[in-house]
Specification:
Layout lengths: L2 H4 L8 E7 L3 H12 L4 E5 L12 E2 L1 H8 L4 H5 L4 E2 L1 E3 L5 E3 L10 E3 L2 H15 L2 E4 L1 E8 L4 E7 L4 E10 L6 H5 L6 E2 L4 E9 L8 E4 L5 E7 L2 E7 L13 H12 L5 E11 L2 E3 L4 E2 L2 E3 L5 E2 L7 H20 L7 H27 L9 H12 L4 H9 L8 E2 L14 E2 L5 E2 H7 L3 E5 L5 H8 L6 E5 L10 E4 L5 E4 L6 H16 L6 H10 L4
Parallel strand pairs: 1-2, 1-11, 2-8, 11-20, 22-28, 25-26
Antiparallel strand pairs: 3-7, 4-7, 5-6, 9-10, 10-11, 12-18, 13-16, 13-17, 14-15, 15-16, 18-21, 19-20, 23-24, 25-27, 27-28
Helix pairs in contact: 2-5, 2-8, 8-9, 13-14
């Protein structure tokens, strides 16, 4: 889709429900989430054109699970190869096939292409995208946020009810909102180059370790190869451009032999800084993606964490913006994703520390050996891979805490009397939650308890062939289980638990009788 087709206009007097600053993966995914829920969302991007190059080159299982529940996974999977392993510590490979997921692999796809597809989806869902607009300041009160914007030939102001900063690690939104960004500065830097080699055989695919322990990682791409290696002499200002001569020298020194570069397409440098915003929410201002957290590149998880933030925030902000839930629901976004950010920084910093080789008597060598063994063992690879990729993410849930679905992404189980429907397909069709129950449950009592939320929650029958399923489960719009009915709980008790969970995650029940009747039709059983 052309940039013109994705653009829109905004009048100075217009008040939008949600203004999103930044058209990266977080901003575009959030725009799509809000648009599909009927919320007026406007995405502002300072660059006039999409980027031509990118660091990110993969989507992991967690992102594919989330985007599958939006009907996007098949389009993404058509774009590149899937690989059932990923680089972990040193030269070891982590077995992704051992994970409990419908997508036990990593997808090779450039971040630029991910952004193109997310932009198309966001606009098709009803969001608007304006390029060449840069936020310069903001003021908020109890009713909304006024932002100052440069672009379109003159400065202007815009008004929104909610503002979300998805504008990267140097986020203007975060700074203007007064949100701290504690952490550690970059201490080591990596050089990245998209280049054409005179002789591609001089750097085969994967990690290549030279005689002094330094390494080069090569990723073949159509017409060129991506090379990564440690920067042996980073400048005082890491934003200083990388020259071809400096990159050539670093590659040759790491390999211990000449690998002549015939052409360079893109050279860049990035560091291992690790920072996490103190708050993901300050009043009517929220943060997502790199604006909320930056981390070492280990595991290539950045794009995936940004999408995770956007999907978690999107359905909650939609309920609040539509007036169906109190704004305290947004505090759960901070609680869940700040904790996820802490895990992200811990995991990536640990992997980065283990890549540093300290001579022949390296004290971390036994740790690397142990983790390499765990990464390739059938008994331990699954839990380790689910931790690294965030497939094992659990959010707070009520009801039966012992069920394996509690707080986790609910699998794509068959639904309906004939099993012809699936949970993923149902979540794709609706912007709300889903209440599932099987034939052993008093489904009439549960459906009656859920009826006041029928404009936000659809009910459906679990098909008997669904493996190891719960008797009843309330599924959030992001696919996670919010409540699971315990087999030992009486019918009345289960209905009360369900009402509490519905009120917590989906806001106040509809009280108008006419609205309630319409909602019951919208949430009919399947």
């Amino acid at each position: 889709m052309s940039d013109t087709a994705m653009s829109g206009t905004a009048s100075r007097d217009e008040i939008v429900d949600v203004l999103i600053v930044g058209a990266g993966p977080a901003g575009l995914a959030l725009g799509g989430e809000l648009g599909r829920a009927g919320v007026r969302a406007l995405v502002l991007e300072r660059d006039t054109e999409p980027p031509g190059f990118c660091r990110g080159f993969n989507l992991n299982a967690r992102s594919l699970e989330l985007l599958d529940r939006r009907g996007l996974a098949a389009r993404l999977l058509a774009e590149g190869p899937t690989v059932p392993t990923t680089m972990f510590v040193g030269a070891s490979r982590l077995d992704l096939a051992a994970m409990r997921t419908e997508h036990p692999y990593v997808l090779g796809i450039p971040q630029t292409r991910v952004e193109e597809l997310l932009a198309e989806w966001a606009v098709q869902s009803g969001a608007r995208l304006l390029r060449g607009r840069r936020l310069t300041g903001l003021r908020q009160n109890g009713d909304g946020v006024t932002v100052e914007v440069d672009g379109a030939d003159r400065p202007s102001t815009m008004r929104c009810r909610w503002l979300v900063g998805c504008d990267g690690g140097r986020s203007t939104v975060r700074k203007a909102a007064g949100i701290g960004f504690p952490g550690t500065p970059a201490r080591q830097f990596t050089l990245l180059g998209d280049v054409v080699l005179a002789d591609p055989s001089t750097v085969p695919f994967g990690p290549q370790t030279g005689p002094d322990g330094r390494s080069v990682f090569a990723i073949p791409r159509p017409g060129y190869v991506r090379l990564l290696t440690a920067d042996p002499a980073p400048p005082a200002d890491p934003r200083e451009p990388v020259s071809q001569d400096a990159f050539q020298h670093a590659i040759d020194a790491a390999l211990g032999h000449r690998a002549e570069i015939a052409e360079t397409r893109w050279l860049t440098r990035f560091g291992d800084a690790a920072r996490l915003a103190e708050r993901f929410r300050a009043g009517r201002v929220l943060l997502a993606g790199d604006a909320a957290h930056i981390h070492p590149p280990a595991g290539a998880i950045g794009v995936n964490a940004a999408i995770d933030d956007a999907v978690n925030l999107g359905w909650k902000l939609a309920l609040v913006a539509r007036g169906q839930a109190p704004d305290t629901l947004l505090d759960t976004y901070h609680d869940e994703r700040h904790a996820a950010g802490e895990r992200l920084l811990r995991n990536t910093r640990a992997q980065t520390a283990l890549t540093r080789v300290d001579g022949d008597d390296d004290p971390l060598a036994p740790v690397r050996d142990l983790l390499s063994e765990l990464a390739e063992s059938a008994d331990t690879a699954g839990p380790l891979a689910e931790t690294i990729t965030a497939v094992g993410t659990r959010y707070p849930a009520s009801g039966d805490p012992e069920h394996r679905w509690a707080g986790r992404m609910v699998p794509d189980i068959p639904l309906g009397r004939d099993g012809g429907d699936t949970l993923t397909a149902l979540l794709t069709r609706t912007a709300g939650g889903v209440l599932l129950f099987d034939d052993t449950t008093d489904r009439h009592a549960l459906a009656s308890a859920a009826r006041p939320w029928a404009d936000r929650v659809t009910t459906a029958r679990i098909h008997p062939r669904a493996p190891e399923h719960a008797r009843a489960v309330l599924v959030r719009p992001d696919g996670h289980a919010a409540w699971i009915g315990a087999p030992s709980t009486a019918v009345d008790g289960a209905a009360d638990e369900l009402r509490e969970a519905l009120a917590r995650w989906f806001g106040n029940p509809a009280t108008d009788a006419h609205t309630g009747r319409e909602a019951a039709g919208a949430g009919r059983r399947r």
